[in-house]
């Protein structure tokens, strides 16, 4: 009865696949933490997180500058991407005729497909010189924000569009029947109802912005200075790792792994917020 | 090719069967004997457990979480719920046609050959023979003999259902279960399938669930009337030869249903 | 009351919304357009077939880079598909609805959010160092497999779940074993969706940089085996721009990348259009 043997084997093989996937996550946690804990133990968690000086050559390992840099760049990109993204989502969900919609959707898909390095390259060649005209070296928080915006935009657009679309049609009909204009319906009824989905999309976008590395290194300058204006260069958590890992050893390398731990935890928090937000959104719609 | 030289033997014997989905009892104390080489119709209002009952006969209920069966169901004298019985083999002997035609998204040929292939037949010539025989038995051969390579989804609803019947015939069952096989079809296609059923009954034991009383009256030899009690469990109210059940029902509830006073 | 009328507000707002759409498309056009315009002039058969000059001056072609990229993607897919598909089949068909399953799903979700550079650190620690694979295509591929697992699993699982329940029932009722139902009915029917999943993963692999930066080594020589170091097209652009300032070369490589991605996108669209037609019954 070889049919039954195959059936049995298949079941084990398939479970092995699932097990491997889970093990990978465990392995990542183990290796990254293993790599980084020596540094945290040696440097001390407070000095590590809040120290303002990062000079491995002199044994100083404070990543506050990088934290601020990541925050600045993420905030900047969201500032640009959220209005733009929501506008496009409204366009796709409510305003555009179907031909334009198809076209725009394809365009957004293409936007996703372009490798981040290419954005970085164009940023280096076009954006940085342009920003230099405004002052500073050109390599700046502003440049990084613009480059990141392009990468975060598609996430915000597609999740926001889905949220707006899933608002029950009855809300829209009720509003229109009361004499509201189309825009009033969108602004006062649809967007607020879709709020938690949109927030989830923004939070997910935030996660992507925090995690982006190479494209950002190309335009941000990577100097370990606090960003005092959008035009100043700085360094982010991800950039810190990528720029120094290839030649770091010993405690230095461990400190970079520790930066990885910080990133890992940060992303976990951000993604959990997004998931909770999405769940709450569904709940609210059921109540109404 | 069921053994139908001597019609009148009992093919499937259901003894004191209770069916539970978790803590909910779906069927209570069902007992009846299904004769070989005849058509037995299961009738009754919706929700009374007719589909659940018929799925007991080929153990399709096994795939539902929390389904539990008490009692015994004997196929040719052997309890199909016995541990030694191979479910996969059982489903070869007891085939099923579903309410909504569900051909695989493959060619007509591959649909019919699916069953035999799973049971180990791979010889191309053998398969061609089986496919032609099954399609002829299902009265579909003439309509599709030039289209064997085409997608089965391109056929009409009635043709698809006959295809599903042919697909079951290809595994050479002894019993064919039909769960409201015509409810998704138009009247003309329905009549074709009813004709087909009468022909098939010469070789196979057929159990059909139907909502349509006229169909039951037209087609079946024996009829079993099911009903739902207060606690939503299904029970067998009356079982007997169709002509007798419809003209001279013994139970008042049967009479009410037949004459349309409810359901 | 000098307030703007609702109608006027609407006109302004709708104009802004359209403006948003225009800006988005403009970004796309500028980026793709600039790279293609700057890059295509340098694109020639010679460029594709000669190796990069290496060193700090830049120049040369991208032949070795293309080869490294192909090796990397090939190896990644060969390892990724069995594991990812297996996990997807397990989750879609076998997994009971209990804590262990929920844990596995949760794990996959978390994995999906981890930044690429953290995967790079992991790959550096495990494959490059502990397992002594060193900076190599193998290390890069294994790291990529980990990165891409959630995508492969999610998309494949959706494809399998999309197969109508009726097909499972029909196959079971014909006396097929569970594995036969999966291998002979579910997987073939879900195949276009699975192929889409694979192509999606290939696309992501091509554009990945951070995790490969730390595991592949970045050398520009001809890869002699899977244990040789190498660089992908995306990484090559990075190195050209940052180390050698050979922007012309970077643009041309970028053009090659963009054209490849456009082609892959086109193939995926064509495949899903064919799939739609097949499901509807036309042949």
Structure description:
The complex is a heterotrimer of chains A (288), B (263) and C (283). With 288 residues, chain A is an all-alpha fold. Helix content of chain A is 80%, strand content 1%. Chain A has a single domain (54-287), classed as MetI-like (MetI-like fold, Orthogonal Bundle). Chain A has a two-stranded antiparallel sheet with strand order 1-2. Chain B is globular. A six-stranded mixed β-sheet of chain B has the order 6-7-8-3-9-10, sandwiched between helices. Chain B has helices spanning 50-57, 87-93, 108-118, 124-137, 141-144, 157-169, 187-200, 213-219, 242-247, 252-258; strands at residues 10-21, 24-35, 39-43, 67-75, 78-79, 94-97, 175-179, 205-209, 222-228, 234-241. Chain B is α/β, with parallel strands linked by helices. The mean pLDDT of chain B is 88. In chain C, helix 1 (6-39) crosses helix 11, helix 3 (63-94) packs antiparallel against helix 8 (178-207) and helix 7 (165-173) packs antiparallel against helix 8 (178-207). The longest helix of chain C has 34 residues, at 6-39. The termini of chain C are far apart. The mean pLDDT of chain C is 87. Chains B and C meet through helix 2, helix 3 and helix 6 of B and helix 7, helix 8 and helix 11 of C.
Oligomer kind: heterotrimer
Report the β-strand fraction of chain A as a percent range.
under 5%
- Which CATH first-tier class of chain A would you pick? Mainly Alpha
Radius of gyration of chain A: 23 Å
User: How many domains of chain A?
Assistant: 1
CATH superfamily of chain A: MetI-like
Described by strand count, sense and barrel closure, the largest sheet of chain A is: 2 strands, antiparallel
* Strands in their spatial order, largest beta sheet of chain A: 1-2
**Strands of chain C, total number:** 0
What structural class do you assign from the helix and strand content of chain A? mainly alpha
Helices and strands of chain A, in N-to-C order?
A: HHEEHHHHHHHHHH
How many strand elements of chain A? 2
> What's the CATH superfamily of chain C, by name?
MetI-like
Would you list the SSEs of chain C in sequence order as H and E? HHHHHHHHHHH
The third-level CATH topology of chain A is MetI-like fold
Strand content of chain C: under 5%
The CATH level-2 architecture of chain A is identified as Orthogonal Bundle
Instruction: Tell me the number of helical segments of chain C per DSSP (H or I, 4 or more residues long).
Output: 11
């Amino acid at each position: 009865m070889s049919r039954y043997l195959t059936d049995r084997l298949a079941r084990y093989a398939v479970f092995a696949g699932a097990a491997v996937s889970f093990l990978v996550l465990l392995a990542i946690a183990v290796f990254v933490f293993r790599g980084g804990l020596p540094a945290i133990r040696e440097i001390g968690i407070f000095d590590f997180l809040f120290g303002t000086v990062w000079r491995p050559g002199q044994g100083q390992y404070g990543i506050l500058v990088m934290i601020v840099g990541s925050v600045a760049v993420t905030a900047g990109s969201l500032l640009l991407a959220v209005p733009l993204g929501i506008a496009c989502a409204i366009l796709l969900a409510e305003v555009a005729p179907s031909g334009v919609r198809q076209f725009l959707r394809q365009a957004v898909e293409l936007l996703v497909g372009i490798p981040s390095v290419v954005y970085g390259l164009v940023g280096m060649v076009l954006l940085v010189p342009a920003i230099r005209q405004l002052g500073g070296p050109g390599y700046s928080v502003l440049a990084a924000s613009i480059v990141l915006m392009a990468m975060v935009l598609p996430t915000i657009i597609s999740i926001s569009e889905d949220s707006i679309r899933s608002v029950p049609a009855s809300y829209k009909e009720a509003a229109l029947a009361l004499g509201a204009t189309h825009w009033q319906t969108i602004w006062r009824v649809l967007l607020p109802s879709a709020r938690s989905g949109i927030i989830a999309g923004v939070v997910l976008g935030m996660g992507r912005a925090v995690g982006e590395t190479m494209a950002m290194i190309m335009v941000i300058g990577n100097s370990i200075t606090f960003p005092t204006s959008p035009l100043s260069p700085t360094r982010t958590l991800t950039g810190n790792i990528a720029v120094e890992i290839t030649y770091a050893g010993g405690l230095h390398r461990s400190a970079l792994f520790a930066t990885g731990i910080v990133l890992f935890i940060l992303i976990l928090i951000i993604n959990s917020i997004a998931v909770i937000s999405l769940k709450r959104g569904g709940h609210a719609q059921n109540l109404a | 090719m069921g053994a139908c030289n001597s019609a009148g033997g009992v093919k499937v014997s259901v003894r004191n069967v209770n069916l539970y989905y978790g803590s909910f009892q779906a069927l209570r104390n069902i007992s009846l004997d299904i004769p070989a080489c005849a058509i037995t119709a299961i009738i009754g209002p919706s929700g009374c457990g007719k589909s659940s009952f018929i799925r007991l006969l080929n153990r399709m209920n096994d795939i539902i979480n929390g389904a539990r069966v008490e009692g015994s169901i004997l196929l040719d004298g052997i309890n199909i719920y016995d541990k030694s019985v191979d479910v996969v083999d059982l489903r070869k002997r007891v085939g099923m046609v579903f309410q909504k035609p569900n051909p695989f998204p493959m060619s007509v040929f591959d649909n019919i050959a699916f069953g035999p292939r799973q049971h180990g037949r791979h010889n191309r010539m053998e398969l061609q023979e089986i496919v032609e025989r099954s399609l002829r038995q299902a009265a579909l051969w003439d309509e599709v003999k030039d289209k064997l390579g085409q997608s089965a989804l391109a056929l009409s609803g009635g043709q698809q259902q006959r295809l599903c019947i042919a697909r079951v015939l290809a595994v050479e069952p002894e019993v064919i279960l039909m769960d409201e096989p015509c409810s998704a079809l138009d009247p003309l296609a329905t009549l074709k399938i009813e004709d087909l059923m009468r022909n098939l009954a010469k070789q196979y034991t057929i159990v059909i669930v139907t909502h349509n009383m006229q169909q039951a009256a037209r087609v079946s030899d024996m009829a079993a009337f099911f009903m739902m009690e207060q606690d939503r469990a299904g029970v067998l109210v009356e079982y007997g030869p169709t002509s007798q059940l419809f003209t001279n029902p013994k139970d008042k509830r049967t009479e009410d249903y037949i004459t349309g006073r409810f359901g | 009351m000098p307030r703007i009328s609702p109608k006027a507000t609407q006109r302004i707002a709708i104009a802004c919304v359209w403006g948003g759409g225009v800006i988005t498309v403009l970004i796309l056009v500028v980026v793709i357009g600039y790279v293609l315009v700057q890059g295509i002039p340098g694109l020639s058969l010679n460029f594709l077939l000669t190796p990069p000059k290496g060193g700090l001056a830049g120049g040369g072609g991208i032949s070795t880079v293309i080869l490294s990229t192909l090796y990397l993607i090939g190896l990644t897919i060969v390892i990724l598909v069995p594991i990812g598909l297996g996990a997807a089949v397990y989750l879609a068909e076998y997994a009971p609805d209990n804590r262990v399953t929920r844990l596995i799903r949760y794990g996959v979700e978390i994995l999906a959010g981890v930044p690429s550079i953290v995967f790079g650190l992991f790959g550096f620690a495990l494959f490059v160092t502990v397992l002594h694979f060193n900076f190599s295509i193998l290390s890069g591929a294994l790291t990529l497999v980990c990165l891409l697992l959630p995508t492969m699993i999610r998309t494949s699982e959706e494809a399998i779940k999309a197969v109508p329940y009726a097909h499972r029932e029909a196959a079971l009722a014909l006396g097929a074993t569970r594995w036969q139902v999966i291998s002979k009915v579910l997987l073939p029917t879900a195949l276009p969706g699975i192929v889409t999943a694979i192509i999606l993963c290939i696309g992501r692999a091509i554009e990945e940089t951070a995790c490969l930066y730390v595991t592949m080594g970045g050398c520009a020589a001809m890869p002699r085996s899977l244990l040789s170091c190498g660089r992908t097209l995306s990484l090559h652009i990075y190195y050209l721009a940052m180390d050698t300032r050979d922007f012309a070369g970077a643009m041309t490589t970028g053009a090659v990348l963009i054209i490849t991605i456009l082609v892959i996108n086109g193939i995926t669209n064509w495949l899903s259009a064919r799939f739609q037609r097949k499901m509807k019954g036309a042949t």
